[in-house]
Amino acid sequence: MKKAAVTFVVLGILTGCSTPASEPASFPSTTERASSTEQLATTTSISENKAYEVSYTPTAIAAPLTEINDIETFIQLESQKLEEATIVVYEKKDVEQMWYAALQTKEGSYEIGQIGYEGAGDYSITAIEAFGQTYIKVTGSVGSNSPISDYVSLTTSPPTLLHIEANTIEADLDQDGLKEIVATVGTAAETTVFKMENNSLLSANLNEIMNANIVMYDTLSHTFQAEVTQGQLSTWKIDRNQLRLVK
């Protein structure tokens, strides 16, 4: 399994903090998790563990987007207006075959970061709802099996960013009326859930909680598929901060 690399540059509106961003979060290695999963498979059956407590922890610190003043000198590939802003996709003249995104508002222009490269131009720009507010979501890829998902908030000045190095989807997992963010990365899927609580961003790595080698979210059934026992997938659902076995 590819070790999850989830990096956060989180919204000032989320935490009320403007401290520079921290180092990427560290997770157990693939070997460590695979070994633990094998031990679990030999000692515990799924029927003996039909629920896991989902323990969320504070996940990141706040940082604003960086203002840029020379966007006119870049090679613009596309622009798309959303909400009260425009997302511009561009190339830098001194960096070939790399695609970047910038945010333009009436206050100025701000760098979002790299979203693609030559041969991997499958990016998207949409307006979405998460944590009870609207974000501009920009997705792309910065390398082989290296997806990125950027969530831009316009509720602060300057605008702020949540950057996750994974494929993401927004879903109301606990049926409280607010959508959480589900992030999955790696060939052997590693899944982390992000939620807002008391204006603080929290996260929970479901692979670690379940000691599972694979955890995937099913958008049709709104459940998780997990390899808790080696070689066998089971279905789980979050209910009141617990992962409960469905079948």
Short description:
9% of the residues lie in helices and 49% in strands. The protein has one domain (12-245). It is globular and about 60 Å long.
Explained architecture:
The chain is mostly beta strands and 247 residues long. It has one domain (12-245). The protein has 3 helices and 19 strands. It has helices at residues 12-15, 30-43, 206-210, and strands at 51-53, 57-58, 66-68, 75-82, 85-92, 95-105, 108-117, 124-130, 133-141, 147-153, 160-164, 167-171, 180-185, 190-197, 200-205, 215-218, 223-229, 232-238, 242-245. The strands form 4 sheets. A 5-stranded antiparallel sheet has the order 1-19-18-17-16. Strands 2-15-14-13-12 form a 5-stranded antiparallel sheet. A 5-stranded antiparallel sheet has the order 3-7-6-5-4, with no helix packed on it. Strand 4 and strand 5 form a beta hairpin. The longest helix has 14 residues, at 30-43. The chain is globular.
Search tags:
mainly beta, five-stranded antiparallel beta sheet, 19 strands
Quaternary structure classification: single chain
Helix segment tally: 3
pLDDT < 50 stretches:
1-30, 36-44
Largest sheet: 5 strands, antiparallel
Secondary-structure content class = mainly beta
Q: What do the pLDDT scores average to?
A: 83
Instruction: Report the count of strand segments.
Output: 19
Cα radius of gyration in angstroms: 19 Å
Termini gap: 25 Å
Order of helices and strands: HHEEEEEEEEEEEEEEEHEEEE
Strand order of the largest sheet: 1-19-18-17-16
User: How many individual domains?
Assistant: 1
Helix content: under 10%
Strand content: over 45%
Shape: globular
